[in-house]
UniProtKB/TrEMBL annotation:
Residues 22-515 form the Carboxylesterase type B domain. The keyword Hydrolase applies. Gene3D superfamilies: alpha/beta hydrolase. Residues 1-17 form the signal peptide. The keyword ATP-binding does not apply. Its EC number is 3.1.1.-. It is an enzyme of class 3 (hydrolase). One of its GO terms (molecular function) is hydrolase activity. Belongs to the 'GDXG' lipolytic enzyme family. Belongs to the type-B carboxylesterase/lipase family. Keywords: Hydrolase, Signal. It comes from the Eukaryota. This is Carboxylic ester hydrolase.
Amino acid sequence: MLGLILALPVLVGLALAQAATAPVVDLGYAKYRGFYSPEYDQNIFNGIRYAAPPVGKLRWQLPQPPSWDRSQIFPAVDYAPQCPQSPSSPGPLPAVPSGDEDCLFLNVIAPANKKWLPVLVWIHGGGYGLGNNNYANFMPQVHTNGNSYVVVSIAYRLGAFGFLASADVKKNGVLNAAIHDMRFALLWIKQNIYRFGGDPLRVTISGESAGGGSVMMLAMANGGLEGDLLFQGLIPSSPYLPTQWRYDDTWPTLSYQTFVEQAGCSNAKSAFQCLQSADTIVLQNASAIASSMSVHAQWAFIPVTDGTLIRKRPSEQLLVDKRVNGRRVLTGNNGNEGPFFTSQNVTSEGAFVDFVLTNYPRLSSRNVTSVLELYAVPENVSGIYADSDGVTAPFSTTNSNWAVGWQQAANNLYAEATFVCPSYWLADAYGAGLLRSAWKYQYSPPISSHGADVGPVTEDPTVRGTGLDAAFRTAFQQTWGNFVVRGDPTLSAAQVSGAGRGDVAAAAAGSWPRWGGRPESDFMLNLNMTGGMPVVTRQLVDGKTLELTSYVPSVDGSHPELKAAFSLASGWSWEGGRGKRCQLWADLGRWALL
């Protein structure tokens, strides 16, 4: 007891000292106190409000500025509540409440004692219905790149709260409310990031999956006629492109009606006003139920063509108009994007056609014939379960770590139409412009599933016990950092030599060319590994247990050393002609709604 009494003044003094040194930022409308990370020499601010609570009469309206409150210094140590969650079909439904509608907050990572640094904005994924801005920790990546930029991660309205669409919503509110949230956050950055040491004139927006899709939507916003007003660079990773309906098409209208019914507003004089006044628990449950009734592994509430903010489909605006905001793009995809989103019961050509029409119901029989010409599985297909190297057969069109035959054809078709080809189209849009530039990569280490790249590009490269060596992760993170800081992802000679035993030279300046926007000049960087000891893990996908092979360092030296192996490849001829398949989806865009 005496020891505790004697230690008390020391503990109090330590707490006071930490409070005195904790960074404080004055935003005008409020003050926030973050914390200092001595490990990374960074100031961290979590849970900063960038917009007023979008509740009550502000539901499905444009985001509004926060109210002023200078009565105290608000703590910015803990994360803010996540936005309400909506699952993909068939669920399971989340426990309600799954979040808080008052969720328009952002987090800032700012290197200490530095000013006018470039800014990287992170937009989280999750199918536009799940996720939050708290799960991806960019502190190690910033440190890997010499604490040379600021990172801001933003939250946005999800599910029905962010993407409710119908003629009724257009009449009474705003469509694509969540994309307006993102733009509002970018305006906040424009006005306030200098207070954290950031430069509002050097902003790169990034995201993975629906976050990458959001980056694509922001690139297309207002017809792509905004120039670099809000951002200059873009890093869309696996940009998610579900079917993009018009706001008043049958599918978004049915989803709206289901939401209204589940919220108990069907018989109200004004369904929209009823929704605005409904209890949040009722609405969260209604959003989750309506979303769970979508197509397998899809979400009901997603971006729509609204005629104002989002005026055209991506395949049309990116490839025909080639009008985009910003100056440059670094875009990537993973080797096996499709399995988590694909029914695992496709065993024949008939089942494959059913799968295609379920996901793209407006395709005609002639369209389906065109699809089969490029995706059909030969009768003598190999039964090898192994990931393709992209250059020699068998390709991922028929064989992978995950499946073979018609099942793999379905996995690959969904991957290409939904994640891979949008990445190609973005590269085409920026690569073709005289004043714009593009670079393309693929993340290929087995098992390279959807989202597998997020950890390696953000986490501490020196952490052991993973299937990726430090050289791979460091070089990968440096490509992002170089793009943010100097607008070019290629590695310097010092960065290449620093990789040591890993072969990352293909990413060097002078080796990794810009994407040209033409078949003969569409070169991409393939990020892979070589060597290692094979290990088999089990993964439950759509009720089936799959055995997947990945590689880890050999403990006893009985296997070749696991190390980075970067290489250049033709994006057009990759996997037996991916460029041609992406061109097919562009041609089918008006029916597939891509």
